[in-house]
Amino acid sequence: MTKEMKVFLSEGRSQGRIVTLPVPEVAPGTVLVKVAYCGICGTDQDLFSGECSFAENGQVTYPVRLGHEWSGVVEAIGDGVTDFVPGDRVVGDNAVSCGKCSPCLAGDYAHCEHMLNVGTIDPVYDGAFCEYYIIPAHHLHHIPDGISLKEASLAEPLSVAYGGIKHMNITKNSTVAVIGTGCIGMAAVVLAKCLGARTVWMIGRNESKLAAAHALGAEIINVKECDAIQTVMAATEGRGADFVLECSGARETFKQAIDLAAFRATVALIGFYEHRENDVNVDTMVAKALTLIGVMGEMGNMAGALNILAEHKPDLLPIITDELTFDECIVGFTRKNYPNAVKIAVKIGEVE
Predict the structure, then answer these.
(1) Taking the model in full, what pTM does it have?
(2) What are 259-288's pLDDT values in tens digits?
(3) Strands 70-77 and 89-92
(4) What angle do CA 35, 36, 41 make, to 5 degrees?
């Protein structure tokens, strides 16, 4: 008798359903994972609503199985898999290589010519909102000891924040400003604190989200109560922040990031921008000799983020502000249902 599992499918237009499908079988080089947690990302919410450029431009094929922020336990392994055994706690990359092109055959999976996007846009690889998930072994990573499966579901957003952090030589004397109280911003706070930054400011306007950042060790700047640039300048004797991570993509925050930055600072842009930034003085960037970095999800970053977690074992739970069961997960895909959520974690299965 074929074993079955529950799977959540998004159909766009704020519609979705849980269906029953066969549990996939392992093939050579692949691993079957029993999923423990899967986080709901802002991209998941956009794709669920269908009110985003990806859907409008035809880059999404519905129904789509969402879910690229997950953790779980190895259930079975295929022939040739040597780095994992049943019972291992794992997380996975947010893209899957084809395994057949020249770069893949050379082991350079990051430059696959036919990369698939996990649970998002075409070409898509089914996401992890399911009880059992199959994935090539070379896209899996061991969860460090001391990090729970619930916390490990944050590995993917941590890897995105790491894409900016890895370009920053953060030391015990460094000052870091993070703009944006979403999950990526929180991840940036965690990594900067782990690396020993003297001061990490979280800049935002939502009190409950700022409270979560404070629990992670950040100093809080509520822009509804004070001017962020004046506050940072006063605290640094007019120098500004050595490192700035702009994780919001909100109107005017790019300009704010540039104005916050110290001379020869590094500014990482991690948020997508819905509007053009027209009120930016480029001379400021030149005069400050800034290093400006655009950050996207990049294969290889997860290993770097996990190495930091393994060494420092930070408490990540303040980032997860809400938890849902799998059966009730559909309500989490609508932003207005959880306006103060930083991260909603969906508990898929009992594995811990």
Answers:
(1) 0.95
(2) 999 999 999 999 777 677 777 888 999 999
(3) antiparallel
(4) 85
